[in-house]
Amino acid sequence: MAAQGGAAKPPAAAGMENFRKVRTSEEESPLPFPDLPPGVVEMKVKEGSKIRNLMSFAMAQMELKGSRQIVFSGCGRAVTKTITCVEIMKRKLGGLHQVTKVRYKTLLEVWENQDPPPGSAAQNLTVHKNVPSICILLSRDPLDPNQTGYQPPEPSQPGEDPSSSSTKGQKRPPPPPCEELLPKKLQGAGPGSSPWGSGDRDSQPEGHH
Q1: DSSP H/E element including 91
Q2: What is the DSSP string of 133-183?
Q3: C-alpha–C-alpha distance, residues 129 and 147, integer Å
Q4: For residue 204, what is the DSSP state?
Q5: How far apart are CA 54 and CA 84, in angstroms?
Q6: Which end of the chain is less crowded, N or C, counting CB atoms within 10 A of the terminal residue's CB?
Q7: Is the CB of residue 96 less than 8 Å from the CB of residue 153?
């Protein structure tokens, strides 16, 4: 990690607690997908982005405007959120081809001295930081399956009831309550006999419906 603008180390490493980060920007770099058609929408996911807002816009592009391809990208702490958005779109639309590219991206952090020495101008420090980055292309049209990071559409099972698996093993009705079995058990018994012996009536087991 290199630093520019008046110091050789970032504020934390140099022990300059009076510095505060005032701005962060990304170095622009082309998307790592060759032969992308013009006008492909890139969803740049940030750490503070709202997934609901991202997906509303992305779904509108794919469903209402008829886009065939879309790219989700994020770096640093936004990588996990980027993957979440992709999985949501794949589940909602289905049949999407995917290519994932992982690389490093450079962030530019500008730090400002909040307590400069008397009589001197404010000092700024620019820090170049490399962070992991991910770019994911989703396409309705087939992609080259031989390229690195390709993932075919997930197989769909139309007509499958998602609740069918939870109802397996419940076809057999529950046993009838003990009260319904009582007349059969009493057949042939004497006037004072009881199928539970001489215990109280309160000890009769209860049926579960």
Answers
A1: helix 79-93
A2: EEEEEEESS---TTSTTEEPPPP--TT--TTHHHHTT--SPPPPPHHHHHH
A3: 29
A4: S
A5: 11
A6: C
A7: yes
Token reading at 87? 């999985």
For residues 138 and 85, the answer to whether their CB atoms sit within 8 Å is: no
77: three-class secondary structure by DSSP: helix
Q: Is the CB of residue 135 less than 8 Å from the CB of residue 31? A: yes
d(CA 104, CA 172): 58
Query: pLDDT for 141-195, tens place per residue?
Result: 999 999 999 999 987 655 444 333 333 434 445 555 544 444 444 444 444 444 4
Q: Are 92 and 54 in contact (CB under 8 A)?
A: no
**How far is the C-alpha of 6 from the C-alpha of 94, rounded, in Å?**
52
pLDDT of residue 40: 94
Residues in the chain: 209
